[in-house]
Write a structure and sequence with these properties.
Blueprint lengths: L3 E8 L8 H16 L2 H6 E8 L3 E9 L16 H15 L14 E6 L8 H11 L5 E7 L5 H4 L5 E5 L4 H23 L6 H4 L7 E5 L16 E7 L6 E9 L2 E9 L3 H7 L14 E2 L12 E5 L5 E4 L5 E3 L4 E5 L6 E6 L5 E3 L2
Parallel strand pairs: 1-2, 1-4, 4-5, 5-6, 8-13, 10-11, 12-17
Antiparallel strand pairs: 2-3, 6-7, 8-9, 9-10, 12-13, 14-15, 15-16, 16-17
The chain binds zinc ion (2 copies).
Length: about 350
């Protein structure tokens, strides 16, 4: 039997932390839709690849009805190159090529979900390799998850990019439907002995899923995110020693906190993160507006900066005060160093060394 290989390649970089749960739901809904479609059940095989600074296969190509997609992890960085290198390896390893003796699998359908521009230039060589050896025999559909992307980069791998405005529940539901229709349409065509190319496979844009024609609008994407528009702080809870992810978005010269989240799977985070340096530093005097409390222990202050350079949560009202009450003792859950702290800008403690 000739299979229709489908690859979901999903950006799980830190900035996705608030939307991961909804993307999870989106995948479950897609599977649900496909499970009730006789054509898809017959031909569609799905593999899930996640990427941040590194890429990882969450599940090999698998029939729809046997598949449960594992919960999406989180990682640091956005490396399109790692994602495509992994995708090409998986295609080589799993997709049956046509030969004189046998008809191979149908052209793979790749859904590339991302919410940020690459943080490394490794995509250049990977995209080149893709273009010369894989592009002809595969269809890539780019899906921008509520982001201002540099379209000229994605334009190297796909002509059509689809954009959703937010990752809320309704939009995600619509996106799931839209992706399912693409897969169903392709399965039906295959049933008739036709293989659709990317642009024929997908339905036109609808209310929530907008199309950007990269050939026409390829002006570099007018306005796109710079790496300074989103800042991510990886902190550690001083009570539980578990990590949290604090997101900031730029507003003019300042940063506003968007939320603070429990890091889903710390072991996976380390595997998906390239290098030691994850997260950013932020000048606390540039933070405007309020901040969340620690998502692990509810401590009111989550920006406490140790001399080791790492950040952790603390509760200054319960700390042990010294020096006549002007400073307090805290132990850093990252390096174990006990230091003296005092209140700095806002509520964030600043290290005294
Ligand atoms: Zn805490
Ligand atoms: Zn420390």
């Amino acid at each position: 039997m000739r299979r229709l290989p489908i690859f979901f390649v999903i950006d799980v970089s830190e900035s996705m932390v608030g939307g991961l749960e909804n993307v999870d739901k989106c995948l479950q809904m897609i599977l649900g839709e496909l499970n009730s479609d006789p054509y898809a059940l017959e031909t569609a095989f799905i593999s899930t690849i996640v990427f941040a600074g590194k890429a990882m296969v969450l599940n090999d190509l698998q029939e729809v009805y046997t598949l449960t997609v594992p919960k999406l992890p989180l990682g640091g960085g956005t490396d399109y190159g790692e994602a495509f290198d992994c995708l090409m390896r998986e295609i080589d390893r799993n997709v049956v090529k046509s030969s004189r003796e046998q008809k191979g699998d149908w052209k793979p359908l790749i859904f590339f979900f991302t919410d940020g521009n690459p943080t490394s230039s490794s995509y250049k060589s990977a995209f080149k390799k893709w273009d010369s050896s894989y592009a002809k025999n595969a269809s890539v559909i780019g899906i921008s998850l509520a982001a201002k992307l540099d379209y000229s980069i994605l334009g190297m791998i796909t002509e059509q990019l689809f954009l959703i405005d937010s990752i809320d529940q309704k939009t995600i539901k619509d996106l799931a439907k839209w992706v399912s229709v693409s897969i169903k349409t392709t399965s039906v065509a295959i049933g008739d002995g036709k293989n659709l190319s990317g642009s024929d496979a997908v339905p036109d844009e609808d209310e929530t899923v907008h199309r950007i024609n990269l050939k026409k609008d390829n002006a570099g994407g007018s306005e796109f995110l710079s790496n300074n528009d989103i800042k991510v702080i990886i902190g550690k809870c001083s009570k539980t020693s578990r990590r949290y992810v604090q997101l900031f978005t730029r507003e003019g010269r300042n940063y506003r906190e968007k939320g603070c989240y429990v890091m889903p799977d710390e072991e996976m985070y380390d595997k998906l993160t390239a290098g030691k340096n994850s997260g950013d530093t932020i000048d606390t005097s540039s933070i405007t507006g309020g901040m969340s409390s620690c998502p692990h222990c509810n401590n009111p202050v989550i920006l406490t900066n140790c001399s080791c350079g790492k950040v952790f949560c603390s509760d200054p009202t319960r700390a042990e005060f010294v020096s006549g009450g002007s400073a307090f003792k805290l132990t850093c859950p990252w390096c174990g160093h006990e230091g003296l702290y005092q209140n700095g800008n806002f509520d964030a403690g600043t290290g005294l060394g």
